[in-house]
Amino acid sequence: MAFIKKFRIKKKEDFDRIFKLGKSVRGDLLLIKFLKNNYGYPRFGVVVSGKVSGKAVIRNSIKRKINEALKEIEELKKINLDIIIVTALGIVGKTKKEIKSVLHQAIGKIYSQQNFRR
User: How far apart are the C-alpha atoms of 66 and 39, rounded to whole Å?
Assistant: First the structure.
C-alpha cells in the first residue's frame, strides 16, 4: 500500500528544489537526497530510472518494496525532511529485507549529518 498523499512528494518543483538544494547520502543500492521541510512530518519520493529496468513491472515492484520498507523504519516518522530515494542498478532482485537494511544504513548517515536525536 502506498503512502497517503501528504507523505508523498509528487510535484516536479519539489523534486527540482530537493535535488538542487538538498544534501546527499549514498548507500550500497541507492542515493538519498534530503532537505529540511516545515510540514512537521516527513515526505518521500522514490525514483527508479528506466536504466534500472526497462520493464515497468519491475520498476513498480522496486518502488513498492522501498515504500513498504520506509513504513517500517520508525526513525523516519520523527523527522521533518523531504527525502528522495534514487535507486541504483544493483537493486533489481533484492528483497524488501535487504532494501530495508540499506535504508537503515543510509538513514543513520542522515542522522549523523543532521545531528538529529534518535
Answer: 22
Cα–Cα distance measured from residue 75 to residue 112, given in angstroms and rounded to the nearest whole number:
13
Nearest Cα to 58, choosing from 1, 97, 100, 66? Answer: 66
Give dist(CA 55, CA 24) in Å, integer. 27
The identity of residue 88, as a single letter, is A
The reported pTM is 0.88
Integer angstrom CA distances of residue 2 from 16, 20, 38, 86, 99: 22, 26, 22, 17, 16
Domains (range + CATH), the chain: 5-114 (3.30.230.10)
Cell of 19: 535535488
Chain segment 50-95, per-residue pLDDT in tens: 999 999 999 999 999 999 998 888 877 778 899 999 999 989 999 9
Grid cell for residue 17: 528544489
